[in-house]
Design a protein that fits this description.
This protein has ten helices and 21 strands. About 25% of the residues lie in helices and about 25% in strands. α1 crosses α9. It binds flavin-adenine dinucleotide.
């Protein structure tokens, strides 16, 4: 069976829902279908706080049906194949959808299986991750149970969603240990595939000071390859030129894992992907490089910025403007400058709000130096942003 819709949106997550809502807010008569297989919609940025015991996990999930914009049709299915030459996508059910315009926003894929023993141990043996709704509260259990030994935090060698999230939980945990008076009994360590603490020097400076003060040990160019849950050991392999192939086993009391991530397989293997697997779009207009009636935004797109919901908030209006221009045969004039934001929670009641663009230049919202730990910015993350997400961003009002 093949059904036609004027606009098809792939993915009913942060990007897909906000862009569909913005389109309909501007023109109610558009025929938009959103393809989304999940019954649930998640507010993922709060999972860092769930893992630290300061956000109710149940408040991070709502029924997908409740966020589908009025006037859009929800197709509860998954896209599995792109046929861009004939303007069609194939669904898991075998049905096909025919479109005039396609918006691709299926998010990033979490590759848990790439680390031996990770899937089997997640949620037990001190192995936790805020990257999965099911286990975010187990992180809090692990932090509370850790009284001595090593608390390990990992950051993979791949792109991730929210580049700051692997560190946020490390700062929250070390602040908690200090508050319990047991900081000197616990060695906190970050094992990262990255090469530096943070990509923007202005924010890196303040984070490095916190790391030094809390005596957190950083090991760079490291890839987590195996977890032995029963013996509470993790194996890393060196991926830098100096440590290439060197294997290290590390004991842990708890380990917070940020899994390796990539573009979703069905995108990676499709004609719309670039060499790295992401949806190949122009970094300013968000239009596909080869197929002009395809656009992409959010975590699955090739946009070379840090993948966050904050970035989506700036991408969505650009995509909407350019799609309307295309429909009217006008030039695509709206441009996305790579804006992204990372609210780096550095402790209970403390946050450094990093905001920057494609050139790693700070693009700060507030009239004060944001490269400073602030209580006000923590309040923004804890209370204001979740409210804005459900009430303003998803309904396409900002
Ligand atoms: C622990 C954590 C902390 C974070 N912290 C922050 C933060 O502080 N600030 C911030 O701005 N961002 C943060 N983020 C990142 C933010 O959540 C993402 O960048 C944002 O959700 C991206 O939106 P998206 O629509 O591209 O992807 P998602 O919101 O993940 O949505 C993708 C959707 O596509 C659907 N989908 C998948 N496959 C298919 C398919 N085959 N067919 C159809 N649909 C499909 C999925 O079910 C999903 O609903 C955090 C994320 C995590 C995990």
């Amino acid at each position: 069976m093949s059904t036609h819709h004027q606009i098809i949106v792939i993915g009913g997550g942060n990007a897909g829902i906000s862009v569909a809502a913005q389109l309909l807010n501007k023109n109610k008569s558009l025929d938009i279908a959103i393809v989304e297989p999940s019954d649930n919609h998640y507010y993922q940025p709060a999972w860092s706080l769930v893992g630290a015991g300061i956000f109710n996990k149940a408040k991070t999930v709502r029924n997908e049906s409740s966020v589908i914009p009025e006037g859009a049709k929800w197709i509860k299915d998954a896209v599995c194949t792109f046929l861009p030459e004939i303007n069609k996508v194939k669904l898991g059910s075998g049905n096909q959808l025919h479109y005039d315009y396609l918006i691709v926003a299926p998010g990033i894929q979490l590759n848990w299986g790439e680390v031996k023993g990770l899937k089997e141990n997640l949620g037990k043996n001190g192995v936790c991750s805020n990257y999965d709704f099911r286990y975010a509260d187990y992180t809090w259990e692990c932090i509370q149970k850790t009284k001595s030994g090593r608390a390990i935090f990992t950051n993979p060698h791949t792109p991730v969603k929210c580049g700051g999230a692997p560190q946020k939980i490390m700062y929250l945990a070390t602040d908690y240990f200090a508050k319990q008076g047991i900081a000197d009994k616990i060695q906190a360590e970050m094992w990262t595939g990255g090469t530096r603490v943070f990509g923007v020097p202005k924010y890196e400076e303040v984070l490095k000071k916190i790391i030094e003060k809390r005596k957190i040990k950083f090991s760079f160019f490291q890839k987590l390859v195996e977890i032995d849950g029963e013996n509470k050991k993790a194996k890393f392999i060196g991926i830098g030129t100096a440590n290439e192939g060197v294997e290290t086993w590390v004991d842990f009391e708890m380990i917070h894992v940020t899994p390796p991530q990539s573009a979703p397989d069905f995108v990676k293997t499709s004609p719309i992907a670039n060499g790295a697997g992401w949806v190949d779009v122009d970094k300013y207009t968000l239009q596909h490089i080869k197929y002009p009636n395809i656009f992409s935004l959010g975590d699955a797109s090739s946009l070379p910025t840090s993948r966050t919901g904050a970035a989506v908030r700036k991408q969505a209006p650009v995509l909407v403007k350019n799609l309307f221009s295309l429909m009217q045969g006008k030039p695509l004039e709206a441009k996305y400058d790579g804006y992204t934001s990372c609210p780096v929670v550095t402790g209970y009641g403390k946050l450094v709000l990093a905001e920057f663009d494609y050139n790693n230049q700070p693009t700060e919202t507030f009239p004060f130096n944001q490269a400073k730990e602030r209580w006000s910015m923590f309040m923004l993350k804890r209370y204001i942003l979740p409210w804005l997400y459900w009430n303003r961003i998803l309904p396409g009002k900002m």
